[in-house]
Specification:
The chain has 14 helices and 16 strands. The chain folds into two domains: 151 residues, Rossmann fold (3-Layer(aba) Sandwich), CATH 3.40.50.720; 183 residues, Dihydrodipicolinate Reductase, domain 2 (2-Layer Sandwich), CATH 3.30.360. 39% of the residues lie in helices and 26% in strands. The chain starts with a strand and ends with a strand. Bound molecules: NADP nicotinamide-adenine-dinucleotide phosphate. The site of NADP nicotinamide-adenine-dinucleotide phosphate has 31 residues, from helix 1, helix 3, helix 7 and helix 13.
Length: 350
């Protein structure tokens, strides 16, 4: 049986409904009774109400937790404490680099407890992480990895809130195995995501953390496709970054986000698709560069998140995930993404 924490949030509710439709044994959980009661009554599921720091008292009979309550910088650590104390596997849909790094640092403790720590089982990072694993298989000597995605579709309130929380932090890449802070939109390049070239800029996406653990490649940059004018606008906003992390500014933006963002509706989730691109590189002793490029096409980011999170829970419940910290591509291999609904690839080139 698995417990879904944050079950009445936008993403949590999508996962709850799909788990129910698939006949899965799920307990719905969250910190507020009212929205949880309504959802549990409608889906005829068990529900448990508790704040995240009391989780250890509420995991009786639970084999695996799927945490959909973000920002995960607030919820992952206390939920992992509870999972380690009770011998429960932990999965979440974070995309937050710092959260991946914090959970990676708990690898030894999780392994000793026989517990799987598998963050990032949503759109961030399943397709990009599986693509990274695929590229590392194609070019095992690779020293540099570039990953990118072109996602057309609106975001949910929680994703916007998580993004607001990280405003002001600038960008990040991995250099020689270490995460390095860089300015926003630090590099831009033209990328053919599979539909002709478009402009993309570096972003501090979860793979800056995870791709290293999945592939061992120490230099990682992640790019997002942006409209042509956006590069200049992003760079022009750099002097404002310190202002954007002031509590007054983030609090105001947070309340705005929750008032105006509703998350993509069903029609938008069905219509929009996403393209994912990756390139592994190595320069040989002769100075000649070798490259491998591969691409994927996926459904809408939220549709994929629901499917990939449930698939990862099922594989974990079946005992397929190792104990300790792991990543989607590391735990289940590159082909994991190809088993998800509507995913096409790998399209190999280079
Ligand atoms: N990896 C991916 O690709 C991916 C995909 C989708 C979403 N996400 C991430 O998932 C998170 C949720 O997104 P969403 O759109 O579902 O947001 P949402 O609609 O705002 O829902 C957030 C949920 O988390 C709960 N929550 C927040 N802080 C909490 C805390 N400190 N303790 C207990 N519960 C807490 C909320 O409960 P209350 O209402 O009681 O505050 C709510 O149930 C975001 O961080 C988003 O970035 C990632």
């Amino acid at each position: 049986m698995f417990l879904l924490y944050g079950a009445y949030g936008y993403t949590g509710e999508l996962v709850a409904r799909e788990a129910n439709a698939r006949g899965r044994d799920v307990v719905l959980a969250g910190r507020r009774a009212d929205p949880l009661d309504d959802l549990a009554a409608e889906l005829d599921c068990e529900r448990r109400v508790f704040p995240v720091d009391a989780a250890a008292d509420h995991l009786d009979g639970v084999d695996c937790v799927l945490n959909c309550a973000g920002p995960f910088a607030e919820t992952a650590d206390p939920m992992v404490d509870a999972c380690l104390a009770t011998g429960t596997d932990y999965l979440d849909v974070t995309g937050e680099m710092e959260v991946f790094e914090a959970l990676a640092a708990r690898d030894a403790a999780a392994e000793a407890a026989g517990v799987t720590l598998l963050p990032g089982v949503g759109f961030d990072v399943v397709p990009t992480d599986c693509l990274a694993a695929h590229l590392a298989e194609r070019l095992p000597e690779a020293t540099h990895l570039r990953l990118g995605f072109d996602a057309l579709g609106s975001v949910s309130p929680g994703t916007a809130a998580t993004a607001v929380d990280s405003l002001g932090e600038g960008g990040a890449v991995r250099r020689d195995g270490r995460i390095q802070r860089v300015p926003s939109a630090w590099k831009s390049r033209r990328i053919d995501f599979g539909d002709g070239e478009r402009t993309a800029v570096t972003i501090p996406w979860g793979d800056v953390a995870t791709a290293y653990y999945t592939t061992g490649i120490g230099n990682v940059e992640v790019y997002a496709g942006v409209p042509p004018g956006a590069v200049l606008a992003l760079r022009a906003s750099r002097p404002l970054e310190p202002l954007l992390s002031l509590p007054l500014v983030t609090d105001t933006l947070q309340s705005l986000v929750h008032r105006v963002a509703a998350g993509p509706g069903e029609r938008k989730r069905e219509r929009t698709t996403c393209r994912v691109w990756g390139e592994a590189r190595v320069v040989g002793e002769s100075g000649i560069e070798r490259r491998a490029v591969s691409r994927l096409r996926t459904p809408n980011t939220y549709a994929l998140t629901v499917d990939s999170a449930l698939a990862a829970v099922e594989r974990t419940l079946s005992g397929d995930a190792p104990a300790g910290f792991t990543t989607p591509g590391g735990a289940f291999g590159p082909e994991f993404v190809l088993g998800l609904d509507g995913v096409e690839g790998f399209d190999d080139a280079g």
